[in-house]
Input
Amino acid sequence: MKPPARSLEFEKIKIGEFIIGTIVDVEYDMEHKFTFQGKETITPAVRFKFALEGYNHNHYSRWMRFNAGNKSNLYNKYLVKLVENIQPDADFDVDHLKGMKIKTLWQEKNDFQSIESIFALGGKLHFTTDDAQVITEEGNDALDET
Output
């Protein structure tokens, strides 16, 4: 006897249309396993959790190496698009992106959906390297005063 077919269905996102949302959380896995060309590595990873307008469930970015170097996906695909004046390997706390309103464009490959592009709604976060501050559009310091 075979087990019954699973009825797991995922909420699909419209492809090729801008979808408005919010970054509701940043998730970390300090021992994430990546496989590339048959080689496994374990390294810290990060992904974003999104609440998208018109959708019932949260959606996520791919897991990315937790690295903000100039060739990293985290830096090129997210930080550059969402943070003004960001430079590779800047002393930037990714948690500052929580609560940010965004506009996204999604793509699909082999039945897997992922973010193609992301844009900040209402302007990018302002980052100054002299004191590693993040300032919101209203000019308020977005860092905890601890």
Summary: Helices lie at 73-82. Confidence is low (pLDDT under 50) at residues 137-146.
